Amino acid sequence: MLKMMDDRPEDVPHLNDPGIDFTVEVFPVHDNRVLLRKHDKYGIWLGVGGHIERHEDPIDAAMREPGEEVGLEVIIIGTEKVLRDGRPGEDYHELPLPLGLNRHRISPTHEHVTLAYAGIAKTDMLVPSEEEKSPEMRLMTEAEVLAHPEIKQSVKRYAMKALKIAQEYLSQT
């Protein structure tokens, strides 16, 4: 059974080992280019992301992580319009739907469930934090993503979805 996030020790807010942690991965788009980075620990190309902290929902984490990792402020956009039911004052709102959801093993005793999101970046200026150790990161066009031999198909699929959703979003604003 999954260990609930509120049962975690205060000093280790996002480590369930053994167990499963919930994470987000964001594919920020700016000027028809999507940000990908080569992960420092795993050596694979990914979006930017990290753990959903105890006080956050997935959208909070998806908005926080790009700022922490690469200095980008993003607006998270979903795969469908967020429904509003017209009842002001209720403590209820729909969250943008993710591009996808996956579960993957990090170690023999630890897994992540990741919600992948598209985001609109307000700038293309990357300002990596001192903790960010990714050897490579860059904004890529659709053609560059598709042609890149080191990017996994699942990451290409998320990146392509993010580019498409961002284009649709921007054409309506």
Q: What's the overall average pLDDT, rounded?
A: 86
The termini sit apart by 44 Å
One letter per element, helices H and strands E, the order comes to EEEEHEEEEHH
Rg calculated over all Cα atoms: 16 Å
Low-pLDDT segments: 1-13
Main β sheet profile: 8 strands, mixed
CATH class: Alpha Beta
- The CATH H-level superfamily is Nucleoside Triphosphate Pyrophosphohydrolase
- The percentage of residues in β strands lies in 25-35%
Q: How many separate helices?
A: 3
**In CATH terms, what is the architecture?**
Alpha-Beta Complex
| Total number of strands | 8
Fraction of helical residues: 10-25%
Integer tally of domains = 1
CATH fold node name: Nucleoside Triphosphate Pyrophosphohydrolase
Structural class, from helix and strand content?
alpha+beta
Task: Describe the structure in your own words.
The chain has 173 residues and is α+β, with helices and mostly antiparallel strands. The protein has a single domain, classed as Nucleoside Triphosphate Pyrophosphohydrolase (Alpha-Beta Complex). It has 3 helices and 8 strands; from the N terminus they run E-E-E-E-H-E-E-E-E-H-H. Strands 1, 2, 3, 4, 5, 6, 7 and 8 form an 8-stranded mixed beta sheet that branches. The longest helix is centred in the C-terminal third of the chain and has 19 residues. The protein starts with 18 loop residues before the first strand and ends with a helix. The N terminus is likely disordered.
